[in-house]
Each structure stands twice: as C-alpha cells, then as structure tokens.
C-alpha cells in the first residue's frame, strides 16, 4: 500500500528465503512486493515467485470490524477494505469486502478467515475514485494488522481522516521550539548535502555550563515534524520534553540526519543483490561523514560530552541495521546503539555477500558497548530475528548487562511503534551504567 520503510513491512531481498528462514510463503510474497516499493526500483525481485502462496489449514473464525468514520464522510460513499490477501502481487487492489452502515452510525464488516492466519489492511471509501484512510494530520498512516484468534471477534476501528479531506498542518506545527534545523549541510564523503534537525534539552540555554550526551539518528525527517514525515513522526521532542521535565530521563541532544535518494545504499552495510544486479553499499562513507564532518561540527557548536560512552547511534529498519554496524565496527566513536526493528535479514542465506552473522562473529564486541534492539509481533518474523540476534551475541559472550532486547507483542514496522518504545530504549541506554 505504501512504498516506504516507515509504513510497509520490508523484509527479504533474495536473502532470507533460504536455509534457516522462518518465513512462510505468504510472508515471502508480501515482503517481496513490499521491498520492491521500498527501493523504488519496480519490477520483480530475484527469488520471488509469481505463484500464489500455499494454503494453510482452515480455521473456522471471523473478525467483525466496527468502524467509526469522520463525521464529514459522505453518506453515499461505500466503505471497503483493501487487504494483502487473495492476490499478493497486486497488493492494495483487492476491494472484496464492503462495510454496511447500521442505524447506530457505525459501519460493520465481517471478514471470515481466508487461507492465512493474519493480514494487513487499510480502509478506503468509494466516490468517483478510491480514497484511502490517512492519519488525522493528512499524512499516510501505517498499514493495519489483524491476527486471527481461532474464535470470532469484534474489533473497533476509528478512521481518523480521508486523503482528500483538507488539513491545516504546516511545516513546524508539531515541532518543539528547542528543535533547530540546519539546512543543506555538506556531506563531502557522499557527494551530497542533507538537512539536520537538532533537539536541545529544554534547559540548554538557561544552564550554560552543562554538557550533554548525543544520539545521532537516521531518517531525521521522521523524528520531530509531522509535516516532513512520511507516515507519522516519532514525537521525540514531545517525549523528551515531558520525560526530562519530570526527571525520568537524563537530558540529551538528538541529531537527526535526513535520508537521501540512495537510502538503502547508505544504510545497508554490505553490497547486496537486487533484481539479479549488485548494489554497492556506501555505509562506510556514511560513517566517515558522521565521524569526520558531522560529529566535529556538533561538538564544536554545542555543549556535548564527546566521548564514546556518551555518544550513540540509532535508527529503524535499514537505519537500525546501520546503527548496529556503526556501533560494532566503531566502538571508539559510538558507545550506545539503538536498533529499532533492524533489518538484520539483509543478505541472510546469501553466500555471495556478508551479513549480520559475519558482523557479530567478526566484530569488536569487547568494548563497553550498550546495545538496544527490538522487534514487533506485527512485523513477522522480527521476533524470531531478535531471538537469533540474542543467540549470536550470547555465543560471542557479549555481556548480558550491556544488552537489552524488547519483543513488542503489538508492535509494527512503523513510526508509531518505534515512538512507543523510544523512551524505554533511550532511558536504558543513558542510565545503563548508573
């Protein structure tokens, strides 16, 4: 439905569909489709068949959605569900299920269990064209997820807005005043420029002598501002303002780095194959940019605690994988790693390219690295991947007290889920040694 890491469950290149993969054929079809959109390259993926997935044992169950729509929804418009089952390679085209409006003003839609145990979906309405639901701000929203329970169930859903409804959201409307932007910051190692968004603690100006730890984060446009985000923001500024004021979070500086047109190449640490062609990683150059250009700028212009113990790297999806790579290979720079739903599946099972297993077994895990990782049950097989990472790190005798892995039973592959887990992650990273 959406072609960004922030709202689609991006998983397997031609990589984890081999030995040791826990992917079902259903998930394989979904992820192959999603990744094509994420890399914005189109076409078929190597290793992704066009045959439909095998059926699973039928379970007699159904879910009934009780749907509340915005008051201004035209009464003559049909409300229907767009789902990822029935035709995995035409995702977002299926309009099989239409809801019925009842006297109580709600729309009701019953979905008997098909040959899958879960599915992703959104609602849309039909007037002259198909109009999808969006977030209240008018931005794209993450795909919804439903897991059948083995028994009938009713689920209430509120549609916040429709994509054709007006919104008054403007640039900076959701940004705290202590967030500053640096436009067109030079990245000589990558031959381009980027925008930076820098969060300063609320007392930064009034306490003129205090120095602060710094966390560098990827996908900076999704961290603070609903307007610049793809499918919702992390709300990091609101979270930190509240936590710091309450004394439940140490004050910290956050440096968000906007992504660029070659996001996958800049974040994936190794060369990888796509559509039968090699893609070259420039993640090492991205690390060089942070170490040689960005960090010296931040340390010179802001009051920072510049040592590795007080310097972190964090991100989600491909950005989470990049954070793992940067922390493990550059422990003298980054002493804290926050990897939210990291794409550790990249190159798994592909003998042509290295991957996460080689990184963990060959990397420097002896340093005092604090490592946070997480995954959500609504982004299968993220939980299995987190357990794999725990086993790999244990085999390398990585100290348990320096590792925190969170399995979120309701988490998805989206900013909303990462935002919910962010306070726990940052609090642990900043206070693990205290």
From TrEMBL:
Keywords: Hydrolase. It comes from the Bacteria. This is Alpha/beta hydrolase. Signal peptide: none annotated. InterPro entries: AB_hydrolase_fold, Esterase-like, Mycobacterial_A85_antigen. Pfam families: Esterase (PF00756). GO terms for molecular function: hydrolase activity.
